[in-house]
Amino acid sequence: MRIKYTIFIVFFVALVIIEKENNIISRVSDKLTLKQTPQTSLRPSGFSHILLKHNVSLSLMNRRLENYSEHQEGMTRSRKHILLLTTTRTGSSFVGEFFNQQGDGMFYLFEPLWHVEKMMTLDTRGTNATVAAKAYRDVLQQLFLCDFSLLETFINPLPVNHITPALFRRESSSSLCEEAVCSPFVKGVFERYHCKTRRCGPLNLTMASEFCLQKEHRAIKSVRVRQLETLRPLAEDPRLDIKFIQLVRDPRAVLASRMVAFASNYKNWKQWAMGGDVPTNDDEVKKLKGNCDNIRMSAEVGLRQPPWLRRRYMLVRYEDIARFPMRKAREMYRFIGIPLTQQVKSWILKNTQSSKETSGVYSTQKNSSEQVEKWRDSLPYSIVQVVQRVCGPTLKLFGYKFVSSEEMLMDKSVSLIEDKVFSFV
Ligand SMILES: *[C@@H]1O[C@H](CO)[C@@H](O)[C@H](O)[C@H]1NC(C)=O
Ligand SMILES: *[C@@H]1O[C@H](CO)[C@@H](O)[C@H](O)[C@H]1NC(C)=O
Ligand SMILES: *[C@@H]1O[C@H](CO)[C@@H](O)[C@H](O)[C@H]1NC(C)=O
Ligand SMILES: *[C@@H]1O[C@H](CO)[C@@H](O)[C@H](O)[C@H]1NC(C)=O
Ligand SMILES: *[C@@H]1O[C@H](CO)[C@@H](O)[C@H](O)[C@H]1NC(C)=O
């Protein structure tokens, strides 16, 4: 399919080049009319001979070619919709900033699906995964089109006249705190809901929508989508030019991080870490396996590059971003097809304490490597074994080395991160 298409284009380009040469020749011939013999003007040139053989009119061909290049130009200029797909404790807020910091051309939303998930956990009838996946998909689709109406139905309390003081982490989306989206702050009424950069009243979602429509590109970060496959309708929506970036991290490191960050939900794990046997059939272990399987299955779909995902999927490891933030940011923007702004570059430099990539890169890299492998100090070998057992295929796919002894776990001179290239740009 792809080869045919390429041949098609090569054929067209070849025709144009030949045609241009013909034009030059004919213009030259015009000037040399005296030398031109009737025979040469009547005999089809090599090019027109091809045309006649294929019964294609030159002007029609030109028009098609014009259409094609216009189409290409339109594609490169057009608006991009970026979805950063990940799970908790993978550095996704950090990576989200790569888009939040892009500046005037980008409308960025931080975890809008929080409201959807929250509402569904409140649903006493119990919402199943299929229903949740559909809700996530539909809300995302609308948001990429700057339509907040479906999201509104999930916000609690329900917004009145599209005004809400309750949008989750509004201040994490710089677009929602800009002057154009900042309604007057009334002292004493909504004291808690102003932005960091300026004091704003509750969010007027109509204003947010209008502002969003003016922005060239739109990006959303979400830790809630379970299966990439469920988002296929977004990739096929002709109104969207969507780019999925899946961010993954070593599941052993994620577990270690969650045990600290979400301590109350990880009591069992903490107990096991202190020396209990881990029951193989425990719900917590099954949940871990379920999470790992979802992440792996999404990545497998993405890496397989089915036609609906072609040029729309990129896999990024947290560990690579931590070690080479600027390089990975550049790769992501190249994949999306828009330029990385100076503002993002400055933000990355400031927040990774790295100087220019050419100098001082090694010390930063070394330091970040240490950060990246820090979990090895806190996660006991017995728990590491459990994760490796239930998340084995996931570790393998992403290039995270298995440890086979406590000594290997503790010996940080041996990195557990294999070099691996996943991008297909
Ligand atoms: C070439 O195109 C003309 C006009 O479209 C058509 O009438 C004719 O049958 C075609 N000839 C061949 C060989 O396909
Ligand atoms: C070029 O595009 C226009 C508008 O999309 C269309 O009407 C026309 O048929 C196209 N021309 C060719 C030769 O494909
Ligand atoms: C999920 O719920 C919907 C509607 O309540 C139902 O039609 C569907 O069969 C359920 N799916 C599963 C897998 O339970
Ligand atoms: C919200 O914003 C819209 C559009 O700018 C405006 O028409 C409306 O009056 C605003 N609502 C309130 C309560 O200020
Ligand atoms: C790593 O970087 C941090 C922040 O710059 C610094 O405080 C720390 O000492 C560094 N650690 C090493 C081992 O260089």
Automatic annotation (TrEMBL):
A Pfam family assignment = Sulfotransfer_1
* GO BP terms: carbohydrate metabolic process; N-acetylglucosamine metabolic process; sulfur compound metabolic process
Keywords assigned: Carbohydrate metabolism, Glycoprotein, Golgi apparatus, Membrane, Signal, Signal-anchor, Transferase, Transmembrane, Transmembrane helix
Instruction: Tell me what topology the record assigns in the membrane.
Output: Single-pass type II membrane protein
Using the record, list the residue span of the signal peptide; answer none if the entry has no such feature. 1-18
The UniProt entry, under InterPro entries, shows: Carbohydrate_sulfotransferase, Gal/GlcNAc/GalNAc_ST, P-loop_NTPase, Sulfotransferase_dom
* GO cellular component terms, A-Z: Golgi membrane
Q: Which residues form the Sulfotransferase domain?
A: 80-398
Known EC number(s)? 2.8.2.-
- Quote one Gene Ontology molecular function term: keratan sulfotransferase activity
Location comes to: Golgi apparatus membrane
Catalytic reaction equation(s): 3'-phosphoadenylyl sulfate + keratan = adenosine 3',5'-bisphosphate + keratan 6'-sulfate; chondroitin beta-D-glucuronate + n 3'-phosphoadenylyl sulfate = chondroitin 6'-sulfate + n adenosine 3',5'-bisphosphate + n H(+)
Superkingdom in the source lineage: Eukaryota
Chief localization class?
Answer: Golgi
Q: Which family does it belong to?
A: Belongs to the sulfotransferase 1 family. Gal/GlcNAc/GalNAc subfamily.
Query: This chain belongs to which protein, by name?
Result: Sulfotransferase
Q: Which organism is it from?
A: Anabas testudineus (Climbing perch)
> The organism's lineage?
Eukaryota, Metazoa, Chordata, Craniata, Vertebrata
